[in-house]
Amino acid sequence: MLKERRLEYTRTAVENLDDIFQTVLSVSSSEKIATNIVKSIGNDIRKLQYNVTLGRPLSAVLNLESELTYYRLVSGKYIVIYEFDAEVITVDLIVWGKMDYIATLFNV
C-alpha cells in the first residue's frame, strides 16, 4: 500500500493561489472559471501525495548537474514548485507557466 505524504503549502504558495484566482476572475469575470482553475491545480498537487515523482527534478529541467531538492509539476498553464521528504510534500511556489519562476524561486 502506498504511503500518503502530508501536504503543506508555504505562505507564498497560498498567496500564489489567491493571485491566480483574482487574476482569472478579473480577466474572465467568472468566479466559476477561477474556482475551477484553482481546484484543478489543487487536484494535481494532491496526486503528489501518492507519487511525488509526477513532477520532474528542477535540476533536470534546467540541465544542471546540481542536486537541487526542488521539483516542478505542470498543472495546465501553471507550474508548481515543490520539495519533499519521507513524510511531507511542501509546495513552495505556484506560478503561470510563462513567468520566470526560477528568478522568483531563488530571488534573483
What distinguishing features does this structure have?
108 residues; YaeB-like fold; globular; single chain; 25% strand
Mean pLDDT: 89
* Dominant shape: globular
Task: Give me the strand/helix succession.
Answer: EHHEHEEEH
**CATH superfamily name?**
RelE-like
**SS class:** alpha+beta
Number of strands: 5
Proportion of β residues? 25-35%
CATH topology: YaeB-like fold
Number of helices: 4
Which CATH class is shown? Answer: Alpha Beta
The rounded distance between the terminal residues' Cα atoms is 41 Å
Instruction: Summarize the biggest pleated sheet.
Output: 5 strands, mixed
- Looking at the overall shape, the CATH architecture is 2-Layer Sandwich
Strand order of the largest sheet: 1-5-4-3-2
Write the layout of secondary structure elements.
Blueprint: E1 6-9, H1 11-28, H2 31-47, E2 56-57, H3 58-61, E3 71-75, E4 78-84, E5 88-96, H4 101-106
Parallel strand pairs: 1-5
Antiparallel strand pairs: 2-3, 3-4, 4-5
Helix pairs in contact: 1-2
InterPro entries: RelE/ParE_toxin, RelE/ParE_toxin_dom_sf
Protein name: Type II toxin-antitoxin system RelE/ParE family toxin
Organism: Weissella cibaria
